[in-house]
Amino acid sequence: MSMKASPAILTPFNSIARETTKKRFLRAEHVGNTGDNTTQDTNRGDDFNEDAEIGNANTSESEERGDTAAIQKLQSLKTFEKFKHSKTFKALSRSMSKATNTFSEKISSALPMKSKLKVWSNNGKSVSFVRKELEMDKLDDALLTQAKNFQFYDDYVTLQLPVWAKNELTPKEVIAELGLQGLSGAALTSNPNFKYYDEYLVKQALVWAKKDLDVDDILVSLDLNIIPVAVRSKAVNFKYYEEFVAGLMRSWTDNDVSVIDVMKKLKLNKLTGETLEKHPNYKYYKNYVKNNLKAWAADLKSYEFVVAKLGLRGKRGELLQTHPNVVFLEKLKKSADRYREKIWLQQSVTSYEAWKRLELERVHAITRPNSPTYAMYEHYVNLVDDAMVKLIESGEKNLPKLIDTNASPKELSVKAYIWAEKQRPEWYVKFSLGLEKLDETTLKDAANYVYYMRYLDAKN
C-alpha cells in the first residue's frame, strides 16, 4: 500500500523536511520497520549520506518519507492530547502522584532533617503532622520554643507561609493550620504559633489592599463584623484591618482616586451628620480628604477646583450646608497657607521656586508689594530664613538645599529688602548669596555682591 500523500497535504512540511532530511529519514524508517531497527536505521542513514553526495534522485524519496513521518507524528500528538483529557489518564496521573509521594515519604526517614522538611513541604504535610514527626506533639504550647527540634519546626512553618499565601488561605484556615482554634486575647497572642499567624496576615493585608477588596468582606474575613464597634479596636484582628485600610489609602492616593469614590468604597456615601461621623470608617475618610487638601494647597489649586473635587459643584443653600464635604472646604479656607508652607518646606522648595510657582515675575513692580501672592511669597521667605538660621547656629552640617543659585535678579532684589526688613545677620545674607567664603577683594567682583549692597543700604 502506497504511503505517498498528495502535494496539498505535504506542502506545510516540505520546508521543514528539506532542513532536517537526514533526521526525518531515520525517523520514517524507524516507524516503518518492525525488525532490527537499530541496524536498519544506521545502514540507511549511511546510504543516505552517500546518495546525497551523488545526486538528488533519492532526496525526493527521503523527503516524502520524512513528510509522512511528520504527519504520523502530528497524528500521534493529537491522539495523546485526547488521551491526556481522558479519565484513564487522570486516574493514572493520580496513581503516579500518590506513588511518588509514598516513595518520597519512605525514603525521607533516611534523609537529613532539612531534606525531610523539603519532602514534607512538597507533599503538602500539615503543621500538626510535622510537629508529630519532630516529636513535639505532646508538648504544651508554652514549651514549644524550648524543644530541641523547634528550629526545624520554625523553619517548616515559615516555609509554609508563602504556600498559604499562594493558596489564599483565609484567617480561619490559618488558625486551624496552626492549632489556634478557640484562643483569643492574650491566650492567642502569647501562643508561640501566633507569630506565624501575625506575619501571614500583615502581608495578606497588603495583598488585599493591592486587590482593592471590599472593606466589608475583609471585616467578615477577620470576624470583626460580629464584634461591637465600641470594642472592635481591642480585637486581635483589628490590627490587620487597619493595615489593610492603610494600604488602600496609599493605593488610592497613588491612583488619584476621587474623594467621592473613596466615600463609596468606605461605605459612607449614604450617611450624613452624626451617623456619618460616628461610623468607624469615617476617620479613614477624613484622613484621606485631609491629605488631598494639603496636596491641593501645595499645588496652588483654585477654589473652583477644590469645590469640584469635593463634589460640591452646583450645590446651594441647605443642600450645600448639609453635604458631608462642606466641612473640608471650610477647613481648607482656614488652613491652605499653613498646609502649603509645611509641604513646601518638607519638599525643600526654595524661595525662588516659590517665586516662580506664584508667578510673581509677571506682577508689576509697583503693585507687587500689595498683592496677595507677594504676601504668600514674603511669608515663605521668612519661614525658610528662620529655619536656615536656626540650623546653622545649632551647628548642623547637613543643611537642606533651600538656597537656589539660579535665582533671578528680580527675586534676589526683592529678597534683599525682605532680609533688611527682618534684620537678618550679615553672615546669613552672605551665605544665602554664596559670598561667605570670599575675601574683600573677590567679594566686590562677585555677581551677587550688588544684592548684598542693596541689603546693607536698605538695612541702614
Automatic annotation (TrEMBL):
Low complexity bias spans:
32-42
Q: Where is this region: Disordered?
A: 28-67
- Protein name stated in the entry: RxLR effector protein
Q: Taxonomically, what lineage is the organism?
A: Eukaryota, Sar, Stramenopiles, Oomycota, Peronosporomycetes
